[in-house]
Amino acid sequence: MNQSINLTASVQTATLPQLASSVKYCLYARKSSEDDERQALSIDSQIKEMLAMAEREGMLITEIRRESHSAKASGMRPVYNQLILDIKSGIFNGILTWAPDRLSRNAGDLGALVDLMDQGILKEIRTHGQKFTNSPNEKFLLMILCSQAKLENDNRGINVKRGQRARLETGHRPCMAPLGYLNEKIGYRGQSRIIIDPERAPIVKEMFNKVAFQFYTGQKIKDWLDETGFTTRKGKPLTKSGIFRILSSPFYYGEFEWPVKSGNWYKGNYEPLITKELYDHARGNLISAPIRAKNGSKEFDYTKLIHCGHCGSGVSAEDKIKKLSDGKIVRYVYYHCTKFQDRYCPEKFIREEELIAQLLDMIDKVDIDEIGINSQLQEEMEKYKNFSQGILGKIMETNIPIPVVDAKSYAKYVLQFGSREDKRNLLKCLRSRIYLQNQKIFLGKESGRKR
Q1: Burial 37-61 (b: 16+ CB within 10 A, else e)
Q2: Which of 4, 148, 260, 374 could bond 65 through an S-S bridge, CB–CB 3.0 to 4.6 Å?
């Protein structure tokens, strides 16, 4: 709290036996901390001591000003800056304060004080047990004391940084632990260690699992957390941005960067909540979420053609891009229920490779008459037949024998190597719907679903 109190000369003469001089003092009290409870006692005690000294020595105090602000940077204290201006305008010509370091811990503010003394505008600075006037020796002593305060302040900063580096190298990250962990005090002067939060850690870990293995999006995670009543340490629901911060933080698998974006990485001395593999899996799913196109979502070959055998919802797909240890980039596609009809549908995902294998097996089991090849596909099939017999012969480049070209073999070829449009046209020719249930596909009608 920064404030000033005016004391009139009449009040002073009523309380003081006799004024020793005509110097008009401003009592300036300062505390570095901006914590109201911590600064109140310090400032009040300064004022009490200095008022007692003024009464003993008959000093005229015309105003009391207090400030809660650090003095290590020049020109950053509004109350002090106004005090300098008031001295220049002649309102005060003396300062009463507890110690020189209350006035200055930097060269800029110290220079302003000495300059006012050189000009004869500032007559005197009084502290507890010391007096500084325009005498060369007293000004020199003032400069030494304030410079010593600056040196102590600079060394304190160096020591703090050195201590912080030492703690970082032993795995201690500064500041509050992220959600899922707690700070436990273990010693004096704020020392603490990071421990797992038994209440929130299991939920945070499950968030990674749901993104990694159930393809949960940020919104689905938020809906799930809201349903479970999950809150932060302050009792508030976790926001979507907070969810993405958690899912993007390496802290949970045991590493952290400090300062952030500095490139300086450290291994934590706390218990990791998840493995690096789980983090990479979840992070990969977040990064490779389908990119929105101008006219809708990212398209996959077999979406809009398959329905969930449990709840009847459509089957959607998501892909994951993974970088292997040898630098190779691979792409995996997973198909799963959209849960539109039932958000608790138990159907699990299926890899695209397995889906194609089951579709090929299904084609083998379907009666040839059930595949109603339309005229366009029939024309494409004839082109493929002529091409395979006239150019490729009996062996393809992959050394796989070419089967007899009929409706089934052509259908299998399209499912493996055809365009997305050809694949969809082919599966639309089937006279029954395709369902996915228990990671298996089958042909059926509405009655094929569980009720």
Answers
A1: eebeebbeebbeebbebbeeeebbb
A2: 4
